[in-house]
Amino acid sequence: MSAIPFDEMNTSGGEVRHHYQDFSRWLEHQAPERLQNKRAEADLIFRRVGITFAVYGEESGTERLIPFDIVPRVITAAEWKILEAGLRQRVQALNMFLKDIYNEQKILATGLIPPEQIFNNEQYRPEMQGVKVAGDIYAHIAGVDVVRAGEGEFYVLEDNLRVPSGVSYMLENRKMMMRLFPELFARNRVAPVEHYPDNLLENLRSVSPQNSTDPTVVLLTPGMYNSAYFEHAFLAQQMGIELVEGKDMFVDEEVLYMRTTQGPKRVDVIYRRLDDDFLDPLAFREDSQLGVPGLLSVYRAGNVTLANAIGTGVADDKSIYPYVPDMIRFYLSEEPIIKNVPTWQCRKPEHLKEVLSKLPELVVKEVHGAGGYGMLVGPASTKEQIEDFRQKLISDPAKFIAQPTLALSTCPTFVESGLAPRHIDLRPFVLSGSKVSLIPGGLSRVALREGSLVVNSSQGGGTKDTWVLER
To answer: The Circularly permuted ATP-grasp type domain covers which part of the protein (predicted)?
Structure first.
């Protein structure tokens, strides 16, 4: 992989790539003052609407605006066709893997994945063994993080199958760009994204266990203090379904009901934004005040669908990530369309030895980590930080994987000094139900600090609108 980042907008010779030329010509004719005013307008509207992100542990306040950049990330129709095929393939294999490990466990019998990697994984739920889920779909909503490196090749960085977030920002970013710069959409044929809530609702209704003609779908939230509460409320409103908390529902004779002003109403499908541990205090964490006592019994009886299914986290754990290409070959008899990033599994002595020998060059991640926490970016770390991490690796190597430090692609971004390249990634969203569908594009996240490779909102990252061109 090349150490020089691939520039999304410009070639190495400084020429504007063909698919960015209309935007580039428009940008050349924009007064800096107009762009500054538009950025300020976007911030004001986002704050007024309440599009904020809760950052835990910050003394300055829990709510922060996610920075929005007005330079879009543009993907050609041909590039999207490859991405879409690769993501469909990957999520199909992951769903087949989840069905397998909770039922026949064929892949474990072959030795492709060591059984202890599954059964000792804290995301594995033995309570799901032998449970029949509607349509054999476990990951109804998947957010797959994709990066571009080297000469422009796409790689999957990680899979998010538990409660993937960020789609509301994708939708609001598009709405904002169309409001600020409507002329851009007259000049460029950009694939629409606003039908995502309709697709999501259709997807959820299609997996109702009752095969009802009018299934009741709800969105289960931990409540207003959750970091992604804006998204929970936004999606429920956009889909026209009830936003509920655990206290709003109850179980009676293995059927789930929600309380309404007209009396109890049966619930068929839960789009849950709550981790497994908190779903049912009778089955998981006894101290949970967020779930519904007895929910697991309803689920096991086949009287409610949970999206995503309990136990999906075992497939998005970073210790399982290196095996996804093998899953694709095993279940689909196909070669992966989108590659994994090369990965060292530190639990293997020979891998650990190599990682320790080149630690300053690598990115090291906790296998259960998320949000950019608990990781080492070797080239951006001090000697002291590297040595501290070395001791963590030596004392508990199974907790970590390591990867080369990718030169993530860059996209021009407005910063304090003006237009400058910043590293980006992409999270497309894959819906699996009676059919598999993707909205063209996804959430583009941008590392706003110069040289930073960490795009997570919780670590100071921002977002961009993602354009997939229709021609």
So the answer is: 72-447
